[in-house]
Amino acid sequence: MNLTNAINERFSCTKYLAREISNECLNKILRAGIRAPNAGNLQSFRFVVVNDEKIKEKITSACLDQRWMMQAPIFIVVCSDIKTLKEYYPARHKIYAVQDTSLAAQNMMLAAFSLNIKSCFIGSFDEKSMKRALNLKDNLEPYCVITFGYSKESKITRRKSLDIFIIK
Ligand SMILES: Cc1cc2nc3c(=O)[nH]c(=O)nc-3n(C[C@H](O)[C@H](O)[C@H](O)COP(=O)(O)O)c2cc1C
User: Fold this and answer.
1) Low-confidence spans in the chain with pLDDT less than 50
2) pLDDT of residue 158
3) CATH number for the segment(s) 3-152
4) How far apart (Å, rounded) are the C-alpha atoms in residues 27 and 17?
5) Rounded to the nearest 10 degrees, what angle do helices 127-134 and 53-62 cross at?
6) Which residue, by CA, sits nearest to atom 12 of ligand 1?
7) Which atom of ligand 1 is nearest to the CA of 11?
8) Measured between alpha carbons, how far is 47 from 155 in angstroms, rounded to an integer?
9) DSSP assignment, residue 73?
């Protein structure tokens, strides 16, 4: 699948099949994540790959109990090593952490889509519960969770007309 198709056809998937994702595919997805542009090439994004049902349950609960998440065989929690970023960018580290992790997330979702693996970006979660669920060290902050899995769902999420987005 070419990149333009992946960009145009990706959608937020909330219905998954029980089919596992191979390590080979998972590796390709993670490698796409680390290819993302990132502040100063500090590569401060960190990924927690979760397939343990009990930990998935805790994450789902931290994500305001979005029950559909549990269908997905794999979650990746995209984190930032905020301490390293702060050392280099004392004034800009917070926004850079958001930017770094979001770019890595989109790379992973597009790479997954090209492998016929669907995903959904989840930004609404309780940070304290998420950190507790993952036993995250103090230098790490979670920024989003992405669910990944095979699916029969197919959707086109509409966008407004391009003109609206262009400020003249
Ligand atoms: C910052 C952010 C937070 C989001 N949080 C959630 C979420 O908590 N649950 C969910 O189902 N989708 C979530 N989404 C996915 C959006 O709902 C989705 O991207 C949007 O409706 C457009 O649909 P599409 O991804 O299918 O194009 C989030 C997306 C972003 C960028």
Assistant:
1) none
2) 94
3) 3.40.109.10
4) 20
5) 170
6) 122
7) 26
8) 27
9) S
